[in-house]
């Protein structure tokens, strides 16, 4: 017969401290018959009586008095373990995220995760650092940049400009070629750091070269802020998602030269963390990344 050693010791301690099987059972949070059965099982397991059944009060036998300190230690350790377990469940899952995610987006993701019992702590970082943060265990998981074919979440990219320089329904980079006149305008396309990854950056460079733009007309900005400032101050364009264009007050259009898509997947030290993010939080992460069309994947 398997003995619930902790439950039996909890009943034993409760009865010994109150001097009553009824009161001791209440202290242990169990019915009196259950407390009696557990103490009897513990006595069989230990091979000796813990209480003198010949008296009306639950009185310890000499053996019971000798065993009580050990039983108390076991109960205290079990209580401490349960307390530690509750604290561990509340420990946040540190997640490296694109630094393009807004405070509101992250707050809404965190709020939805909490309803599922998942507590997140965010570490914004550029794409080149996020997977490294997982490797060095600075974070438990990261939303990493991957080609669209390998992605769980995909975000369409196009170009955006200020409303004072309206764009056609579809933008072709060849229309940015400067004219022959002296001092002709040389509009640039700014690539923000989030898209400074080979599967996106190199493809844009190939299109640039194919349509005859000058190398400086497609450039990687030091930051999204710097890229947006360049667009506000000139006729330049920003490579970005529709959600980013809306946030920045820019008019967004798709590119006709190439279908560009940000792709994201999860890198995690534990497979369970990755599974939770890919499934239970898939829709919330999609909204955070600006991919709301993927909220209900098949």
From TrEMBL:
Signal peptide: none
InterPro entries with a match to the protein in the record: LysR_HTH_N, WH-like_DNA-bd_sf, WH_DNA-bd_sf
Keyword Cell division found: no
Pfam family, one: HTH_1
Location of the HTH lysR-type domain: 10-61
Keywords: DNA-binding, Transcription, Transcription regulation
PANTHER family linked: HCA OPERON TRANSCRIPTIONAL ACTIVATOR HCAR, TRANSCRIPTIONAL DUAL REGULATOR HCAR-RELATED
Assigned protein family: Belongs to the LysR transcriptional regulatory family.
Name of the protein in question: LysR family transcriptional regulator
Species assigned in the record: Amycolatopsis rhabdoformis
Organism lineage string: Bacteria, Bacillati, Actinomycetota, Actinomycetes, Pseudonocardiales
């Amino acid at each position: 017969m398997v003995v619930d050693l902790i439950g039996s010791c909890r009943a034993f301690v409760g009865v010994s401290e109150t001097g009553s099987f009824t009161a001791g059972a209440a202290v242990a949070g169990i019915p009196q018959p259950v407390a009696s059965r557990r103490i009897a099982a513990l006595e069989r397991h230990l091979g000796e009586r813990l209480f003198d059944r010949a008296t009306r009060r639950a009185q310890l036998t000499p053996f019971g008095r000798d065993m009580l300190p050990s039983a108390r230690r076991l109960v205290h350790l079990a209580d401490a373990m349960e307390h530690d377990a509750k604290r561990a469940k509340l420990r946040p899952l540190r997640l490296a995220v694109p630094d393009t995610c807004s405070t509101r987006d992250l707050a809404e993701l965190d709020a939805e995760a909490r309803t599922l019992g998942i507590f997140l702590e965010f570490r914004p970082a550029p794409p080149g650092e996020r997977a490294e943060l997982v490797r060095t265990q600075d974070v438990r998981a990261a939303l990493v940049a991957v080609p669209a074919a390998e992605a769980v979440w995909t975000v369409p990219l196009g170009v955006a400009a200020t409303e004072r320089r309206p764009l056609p329904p579809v933008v072709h980079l060849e229309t940015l070629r400067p004219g022959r006149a002296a001092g002709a305008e040389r509009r640039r396309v700014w690539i923000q750091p989030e898209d400074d990854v080979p599967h996106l950056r190199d493809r844009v460079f190939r299109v640039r070269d194919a349509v005859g733009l000058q190398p400086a007309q497609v450039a990687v900005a030091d930051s999204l802020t710097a890229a947006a400032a360049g667009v506000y101050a000139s006729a330049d364009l920003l490579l970005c998602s529709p959600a980013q264009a809306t946030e920045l007050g820019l008019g967004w259009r798709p590119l006709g030269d190439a279908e560009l898509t940000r792709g994201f997947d999860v890198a995690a030290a534990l497979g369970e963390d990755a599974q939770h993010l890919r499934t239970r939080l898939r829709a919330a992460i999609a909204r955070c990344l600006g991919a709301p069309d993927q909220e209900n994947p098949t």
